[in-house]
């Protein structure tokens, strides 16, 4: 787990070897089982703490993103509290800014376009010289983009339905008709890490979909890093391996780690960074107007995930796996139905209180619960041709 942890703790936790793919023959979960598990998780999140660290402060944006994808109405008091928190907070950390952009674009890209443009400015200014992102720091240039005061909606009481809280559906969105053009105004640090880097890509995609125009050189540099930092394992994984359904041919399995391929023998490709990087490559190909399924880098990443397919209780990774499957646009990774196998694994490990995770500090289960629900809800918006809102 990297989000909201110190860099050293993140690196240690990220390198824990994932469990092998399930070998048993348990039946696939039913939709009712999945829905019931999700709502138990939501009940947990309604009163869960929003922990962080000295680097991140809290995980309000991650909780809000989760609640958006389960369909909680924007007028719900808990929802409003989280929304107010993120839009009024200073933009200063890559993870939280990226997640905020995702939240606001999911909610209403027209209403929140000013704030999304500020998120874009932060992400652009914090890109590292080598194309990565680090934890980030405030940039004064976000203040030069117009913003509007936050105005809370009138809170309403949730309705009860069949013993389950029904918060109602979120309102229909429309893509903004106006554009904001963001330029890089200051240099970022020299280098970062591939966890912040994959979340920056998610945030930039949300900005792009909200009609915020991003510098092409930022996108090209970000993709260049992902190309140069992808490498083969030392366990004979080189060669040809089929990618997930829908890919254009075979590609040699290659993956990513937390830093790059030159940071010591222990820094081999592994699951969380490879899954996240595959999603990021698809995002950049999409924003650059190219077919990601014809991209050798994306196909090699998918081949690595297929050759070494795993589902486990690293929920940070599981959310990354969901993004790889949804963004690449495939129901299968290698020979595996990534969603059904992953959902079965997640449902089998839900705690009695509705949360996921097994941390000494139970407050940290908040993060794992969010990641598990985002996987189960297939929360990542698939990339499509033409109108992205269809």
**Which spans of ≥5 residues are poorly predicted at pLDDT below 50?**
1-22, 153-170, 236-240, 385-390
Q: Count every helix, treating DSSP H or I runs of 4 or more residues as helices.
A: 13
Helix content: 40-55%
Q: Which strand order spans the largest sheet, edge to edge or round the barrel?
A: 1-2
What does the radius of gyration come to? 20 Å
Strand tally: 8
Report how far the terminal alpha carbons are from each other. Answer: 33 Å
Strand content: under 5%
Mean pLDDT: 84
Question: What is the overall shape?
Answer: globular
Helix and strand sequence: HHHHHHEEEHEHEEHHHEEHH
User: What class would the helix/strand composition place it in?
Assistant: mainly alpha
**What is the subunit organization of this protein?**
single chain
Largest sheet: 2 strands, antiparallel
